[in-house]
Amino acid sequence: MADKKKPNSADDRIVQETDRQFLERTSTGTLIKDVLEKVISNRPEDPIAFLADYFDSLEDETNLVSKAKQILLMTHHSRPVFETNVRMAYNLLQKHKVTKKVYGVNGTVYTDLIKALCKDVPQTVQIKLLKRIECAEHECIKFDVFCSGVFTSCVLLDYVKLSEMLFKSIDLQKSGKADKVLCETVLDQLRTALASNKSDARRVVESGYNLGPDGLYYALDKAMKRGNLNHGAQTLDQFTTEACDAFLTKVKKLR
Amino acid sequence: MTTEDRFSMTAEKYLAKHNILVYLEDSVAQLLEHREENPKTNAVKFFSEYFNSLRDGNHTMFREYNFVKSTPHNRASFVRLFWKCYRQIGKKGDLLSIQEYHSLLSLLCPDFPFEPVQKTARIILLDDALDCLISFADFIYAFQVQFYYEEFMEKCHEIYLSLMQTQRSPRDPVVVPSGTEDTKVHQNSHHPSDGVDAMQYFRAVYPLCDRSTFSTPPGNYLKEILFNVPRVSFYGFLMALAKSESINDHIGRLPPKAELLEGADSELTSPTIRMKTKTRPVSATGNSKISTDRVSSTQNVYTTQPPSGSLSSHSVKGKNSHINSRKTKKRKDSSDESSSDSDTESSDDTN
């Protein structure tokens, strides 16, 4: 495709470059090579959307934070490539200008990035998350701090998605509001499961069971049989906020 | 398709599955074409626009047939484009001939061949009386399966013909492969001309599903269609495919039949259509007087008539009701030809 050459008409007033010259000038070859490499290493589920996002962020060169966000979201955080991507995002943010001569990642740009990543998370959760992993504006962010903050945010994103799905499954009437008793039951299960720690092997196994379909069904069934339903309802936001609280207690405070 | 699959396959396979190379090559080719008119093109910006429109499915307009046909995404997007542009016709309840539908398609894709349209008509009209008029809803769903599953349809036809042949042979009762008692009973009670045994046909067609290089409907949807009838004719089978809501869902671009004609027209790209009308290619039959007479004169008649019942029957058994509806369509056509209402959008477009 790149070798295609078209003869130029002699009477063209502007000196026309050949296709090859054009492609070389705009470095389309490297551009395509880069994007192909990204696609193959990240294997996005919807490559077309991926390509669109990629070129969008490439076009917008000024906004470092949104570019870094795009790099981080290229692949799921469980994939090995994620680490490389975090490194890339960090290196990119190194270009951030702090003062006239000082460049680097400081607290401001780090907080902006975390905020951008958690854009779709309920506001209250976002604030609580930042309280835990926030750094002061003037601080220099080292790579390991950056890495753990970003990783926490990505896991939280997944967690929010899962708790939304959980809410939908207990929202029996599909009215956007679930019964409070059912919500409490599920949240209790979640809290007890998250309260377990590594050292106690038996509880780890138990909590895994309690959150499985069987365990949840058993708990919900017990709650239903007690029969004091219709004591109010919870919205999705309330539910996710409470579920995230359970998650955030597990996040170590930076300071 | 699970996540494990995506990461465990080779890079080449992954690229081929999503046709990434097709699009990258096309984007560069388009860039070069674009550059000839606008020498100051920004390559990155162009790619960004190209892939955004590709994602939104707006990339097939005015492209050559070979490109439109090249990937499943393109095919489905093209069907959706057709729906978006010509929904008005469906709303008015117009019935058009296949030549007219072909001209409409040619406006969106200048070198669109006549053959797929003809095949679509065969599905709707069950392989006869091809000069009949067809409603928009009937056409678009049949066109969707015909265009999207073209290769699959051809294979199905081959299989159907070979099954028919074995049936016609004098050794008839013996050649049913692994046939059970039941299927033999069916075979004896039916005349060979009204199709093949549905189970037998299913068994022959099923291996094509999900294993081929071309796109096929999921096997369990075929099960839905073929398990409920004892015998099936080829065009009855295709008609059932076209009417299957689950297959439409699977392709995922057109709304379900009930909502096909609903919704605002704000996204309708009327300016582009009008612009294109000037350079309108002559249709295969030279029938340029497209629908001016019938526009809006038939609208109320069709929607209130009982034949619309055939629209909602989703089984193969709908065959008979469909033939009835076709007859009424014919009658309506002849009675409405005389009346004309020139103050409509379509007539604006054609003139």
Automatic annotation (TrEMBL), chain A:
CDD domains documented for this protein: DD_TPGS1
Residue span(s) of domain Tubulin polyglutamylase complex subunit 1-like C-terminal: 60-252
GO MF term set: microtubule binding
The protein's name in its UniProt record: Tubulin polyglutamylase complex subunit 1
One Pfam family, short name: TPGS1_C
Gene source species: Mizuhopecten yessoensis
From TrEMBL, chain B:
Protein's recorded name: Centriolar satellite-associated tubulin polyglutamylase complex regulator 1
Bias kind Acidic residues: ranges: 336-351
Compartments it resides in: Cytoplasm, Cytoskeleton, Microtubule organizing center, Centrosome, Centriolar satellite
Family: Belongs to the CSTPP1 family.
UniProt cross-references to CDD domains, sorted A to Z: DD_C11orf49
Composition skew (Polar residues), residue ranges: 280-315
Single GO cellular component term: microtubule
Keyword check for Phosphoprotein: yes
Function comment: Regulator of the tubulin polyglutamylase complex (TPGC) that controls cytoskeletal organization, nuclear shape, and cilium disassembly by balancing microtubule and actin assembly. Regulates the assembly and stability of the TPGC and thereby modulates polyglutamylation of the microtubule, which antagonizes MAP4 binding.
Region (Disordered): 172-192, 263-351
UniProt keyword list: Cytoplasm, Cytoskeleton, Microtubule, Phosphoprotein
Positions with biased composition (Basic residues): 316-332
Top-level taxon of the source organism: Eukaryota
